[in-house]
Amino acid sequence: MSIPASTTPSSSQQVPNPWQAHAVSIRSIQQEIDGVSTYDLAFDNAAADGTYRFSPGQFNMLYLPGAGEIAISVSDDPARSASSCRHTVRTAGNVTRTLGKLQPGDTLGLRGPFGTAWPMADCIGRDVIIVAGGIGLAPLRPAIYTLLRERRCYGRLNLLLGARSPGTLLYRSEFAQWEERGLVVQTTVDQSTPDWTGNVGVVTLLLERLRSFDPTNSVLLCCGPEVMMKFTAVTAQHRGIPPERIWISMERNMQCAVGLCGHCQWGPEFVCKDGPVFRYDRIARWIDVERL
Amino acid sequence: MVSVAETRYLLEQLQFSANFPDQVLHRLAQTAKMVEMHAGTVIFREGSLNETLYLIHTGRIALEMNVPGRGAVRILTLGPGEMLAWSALVGEGRMTATAIAIAESQLIALPAPHMRELCEADHEFGYHVMREMAAALARRLVATRLQLLDLFADSAPGTNHAQ
Amino acid sequence: MPNENAAVSKRLPDSDGNPQQSHFVATEAFASIFEVLQGKGYTVIGPTIDQHAIVYDQVRSLQDLPQGWTDRQGAGEYRLERRDDNALFGYVVGPHSWKHFLFPPAMTVATADKTASGWTFQTPEDDPPKYAFLGVRACELAAMRVQDRVFMAGPYVDPAYHQRRSGALIIAVNCSQAAPTCFCTSMGTGPQCTSGFDLALTELTDGFVIAAATRDGEEILSELKSRPATVEELRQAAAVTQRAAEQVERRLDTTNIRDVLFANLDHPRWDDVAQRCLSCANCTMVCPTCFCSSVQEVSDLSGQHVERQRQWDSCFNFDFSYMNGGVIRDTTRSRYRQWLTHKLASWIDQFGSSGCVGCGRCIAWCPVGIDLTEEVAAIREPTS
Ligand SMILES: Cc1cc2nc3c(=O)[nH]c(=O)nc-3n(C[C@H](O)[C@H](O)[C@H](O)COP(=O)(O)OP(=O)(O)OC[C@H]3O[C@@H](n4cnc5c(N)ncnc54)[C@H](O)[C@@H]3O)c2cc1C
Ligand code: SF4
Ligand code: SF4
Ligand code: FES
User: How far is CA A255 from CA A14, C218, C236, C295, C303, in A?
Assistant: First the structure.
């Protein structure tokens, strides 16, 4: 037995500085709906180019010097080129407005990917129900691409999408293609317009009515406003889906994205590293607590 | 003409009646009548008296309310398994919205006066029907609240205390 | 970790497996520790008086230490008083903790520069001094262990903390007295220093009993004029900590504390404490384990060079939980509840230990004297 050289706790191997951002440039901007655009960001740094990998559900921190840094989910196909990746951003406040003023070719910073992913392996051999509300479809799109790429590995696939109004249904131009490849897309809106012939009402009603799934062998992936996710989980359980096969993606204030700043705490969970994707049974006790 | 046995089978598939005991299911099937609605058919109008309660087997029904100056505003669409015209049974029969079939729809029609008699005469039957009805209304109430919260509004605080 | 009380006289094994002797260093000889440390390139941080409080700052000689001073503490109360002796470490704990140096209150974590081809991003070279912390208490050693887990044990390591922590030399002091705010005995963190230091001192009237726990510590000890401690000195040293332990009066019942708090998230006591709490964030600033921070953009005038400044933040600040145009914890009740349940409950899930080491700072520095031990006791009371 020997005396230690110093008190320094043996820390994990030398890890890279989590604050180091990669320079990325905007390859293209595509307006999706009013106030929401998709930015394809290309890695400028030769070292990062081609090496970037993410899993469906993970997010990046996008940094606009002078304005600030924000968490944005990757909305791209994980199997697509690793030299750029798409992010779908809703204009909310300062940083997203600043981003909205940029042009293709402009640069910004990116750190990531961070956080937990949708349980794609768990979906194999099962029916998959995706429930999304508003911009909540963005972090689910990589999961959709993944399911459709290996379509035969999964059972029946349903997307239930809710939005405020018909004009705010995200990725509408892709629905036909998704349907063709075996994803049944159902949409509903809170506020109808005269030209809308689709469903009106909240998305939980679509889940209430859904028939083409086997509750004992289904996985449900959900992202949207917190209240919507909470009631989706209630409805899903009411329909017989066990809580351990319900997954939701949470949002909280984020500063560091790496578990060091404390901002994203939600009960004992750090949304940035224990989430954003959580298995419902693990967090069911927190989702009902007000102002947690 | 759909037989009682067939109707009973359909009722068993519906969330509303899936868990009814045999006895109750049978009674309900005897009372029920299948009706077809073509897309565009107005099933009942807001403010009118309607004496039939419906359970939707297939298709889609839209509920609209008339807002002066805005015309008919579509507030909700209903689908398979859901109940329509609940106020025929528990209200005074005056409809609170206009119901329009927006797809080919098959409905199970239940005459409200007869249902009321059955509930009155057989409290066991009444209990099951009313319990499901209360549950369905509670779900619709929650859904309506969520809709009211306007969760996707631009600056909706994404918090969980806006209950 | 061994927690037996006789650790001062405990002989630490050296590299050959021989027990290490506790040494006695007279006060005059101890004065040379500053030169020894400076000679080894350390910046010595220790207790010193600043604005009516004993704080931690750079100290260059014995004269900088609060010799002959003590602190009198209570709920919402802290003041300095003269001692009737010349003790160097005859106080308890002040508003500062070592986190000021390991986790700086403000620092630049990243920079961005605009070049002809767009923005470039760097993380600044960080060249902190090599610190020697003089006068670290048992509860503060525990607090360092807690922050070590926060900043260095996860998938991502905080580079600033890691760098400062790895270079630091830790000279602990066994407490000779406890304040009415102390409850280290409830938290199992003190008053005896048992591990996590290079050197541990126990102050006697005319000098120190010193034990080395590491080779770095041994080396420093070997450069001080010392002799093996006598049995009587060891007995006196043990009595010093024993006395401190006996003075600890405050208790926090930690039995099942996590489950008790989580089961009581809607306890009426939260409303009660919210009536008193000013949400001023003092408790989180003085707490040696609180680690929250936020990052701000600081641009130069041209906007071509931007620094990302990390600053301490607190869950008591209104904007802390800002999201989507709203604030999640928008009431004092919810913020106090976050603080207390984080410290005493969720910390256990997150880092495997309590986030409270029982130092009592939050009690003394609360402007309205809120005492977490009292709040916990009230929450444990069955509600009618
Ligand atoms: C894991 C995760 C994934 C997300 N994915 C997407 C996505 O794919 N698309 C999308 O449009 N939005 C997403 N968001 C929300 C997005 O981060 C916020 O809309 C954005 O931070 C708003 O910044 P702002 O400056 O424009 O707005 P403001 O309301 O002006 O925000 C001011 C500042 O608050 C801070 N802040 C930190 N965390 C948040 C937060 N969660 N919400 C709001 N402000 C925050 C930021 O520093 C921000 O700049 C995600 C959030 C999280 C936590
Ligand atoms: S919560 Fe209070 S008593 Fe506990 S470690 Fe922090 S300041 Fe000290
Ligand atoms: S959340 Fe509050 S109590 Fe917890 S570490 Fe951060 S500031 Fe301290
Ligand atoms: S965002 Fe900093 S800890 Fe999660």
Answer: 22, 42, 50, 6, 22
